[in-house]
Design goal:
CATH class of the largest domain: Alpha Beta
Largest sheet: 6 strands, mixed
Number of domains: 2
Order of helices and strands: HEHEEEEHEHHHHEEEEHEHEHEHEEH
Distance between the termini: 50 Å
Strand order of the largest sheet: 2-3-4-1-5-6
Strand content: 15-25%
Structural class: alpha/beta
CATH topology of the largest domain: Nucleotidyltransferase, domain 5
CATH architecture of the largest domain: 2-Layer Sandwich
Length: about 375
């Protein structure tokens, strides 16, 4: 089901009803943090009759007079589930847990009591959750599968949010998160990367073109990356990547590149060391706009870039580090419903951020005077 469809509310109603009638029920979320809203909703639901129940908040257990119980777990600690037996297991955001947690830790807990499992989730690529969904759709007698977009929720505010999301999100994200479709590259953020790579290395500046740039700062562990885009043709024409280089030297290289390409505007990260370096570049004569990176501003920049790929509005340089970072880039939905964008652990994302800032400059350069 899509976001805000009501799947967690549906599951909580079912979980508490079954536990009240004597069933042992496990409610499992991907992480401990994800499980907190589930526990709070369960506590709220039982509040009118809490004096008749045994509630163990530290263990997140609710025991009913019937002998039934509801237990809330997180899949990032699968060992806590091993050895248990349940009549019903509900996995919230099932596509976000590992297949090993499902097969090795969770499924065996259903064996003793011939229990059932309900997997609820928005899609996340074509992973094990997708394969289970296909099995159910193919006619397995012991399974059933259902699918619905977010606008199947009749609440007007949800329908309004659905339409707003359609306007501002990339096609891939909207289809996965709101239409509840299993998208081929659902674990990634950018589509059509290979098709976008069509700018050869060695392109020279054209005095008849307008160039803009994005700048992501780093010193040692990561890379400072300057990405230059032909604003007229939306082509990435140069990527400069530096690490273990003193900031003074970095600024000189950036200044030289901006002069060579006659860069009209640079949008540069201003967090931490970014602001003083940006101020120095301004003193050197570079027209520069600060970009304060927050989860919200980063999400907006990445979504805009992803939409450019979806609509084939951008062409990439044949630069392997940039291509690799784009292909590995991931999205994660937070408890608040917002998206967090980042590289997988151990992978850099400096080229992606520099490109996203350059794309931001593309849309903003006309707002700046000479």
């Amino acid at each position: 089901m899509g976001r805000r469809w009501g799947k967690s509310f549906m599951a909580s109603t079912l979980a508490l009803t079954c536990a009240d009638k004597g069933a042992l029920v496990a409610w499992i979320a991907p992480t401990y943090r994800n499980s907190r809203p589930l526990w709070r909703s369960a506590e709220k639901a039982i509040a009118p009759v809490a004096q008749h129940l045994t509630v163990r908040r530290a263990e997140r257990e609710i025991v009913f007079p019937s002998g039934g119980a509801l237990y809330v777990y997180s899949a990032d600690n699968p060992d806590s589930i091993r050895g248990m037996s349940f009549d019903l297991v509900i996995i919230d955001e099932a596509s976000r847990i590992t297949e090993e947690a499902w097969t090795d830790a969770i499924q065996p807990t259903l064996a003793d009591r011939d229990g059932r499992a309900i997997l609820i989730s928005t899609p996340h690529g074509r992973n094990w959750f997708y394969r289970e969904w296909l099995r159910a759709k193919s006619g397995d007698a012991d399974m059933a599968a259902f699918q619905a977009p977010s606008n199947a929720n009749p609440i007007p505010s949800i329908k309004d949010a659905f339409e707003r999301a359609r306007e501002i999100m990339s096609d891939r994200t909207f289809r996965q998160e709101w239409l509840a479709e299993f998208v081929d590259d659902g674990g990634g953020v950018f589509r059509g990367i290979a098709e976008a790579v069509r700018v050869p290395i060695g392109r020279e500046p054209n005095p008849d073109r307008t160039y803009v740039a994005g700048l992501d700062w780093a010193l040692s562990n990561d890379y400072t990356v300057l990405t230059i885009i032909d604003q007229t043709e939306h082509e990435v024409v140069h990527v400069e990547r530096m690490t273990m280089v003193d900031y003074a030297v970095q600024r000189q290289r950036i200044h030289a590149l901006c002069e060579r390409w006659n860069v009209y505007l640079v949008v540069a990260e201003s967090n931490a060391m970014g602001k003083p370096n940006n101020d120095e570049l301004r003193r050197m004569g570079i027209r520069l706009r600060d970009f304060v990176t927050t989860n919200q501003s980063k999400a907006a920049a990445i979504e805009s870039l992803a939409a450019a790929f979806d609509h084939r509005q951008i062409a990439l340089l044949e630069f392997r580090p940039l291509i690799d970072e784009l292909q590995a880039y991931e999205a994660q939905r937070l408890d608040s419903g917002a998206m967090r964008y980042s590289a997988p652990e151990g992978v850099h994302d400096d080229c992606v951020m520099s490109l996203a800032l350059a794309w931001t400059a593309c849309s903003q350069q006309t707002m700046w005077g000479a």
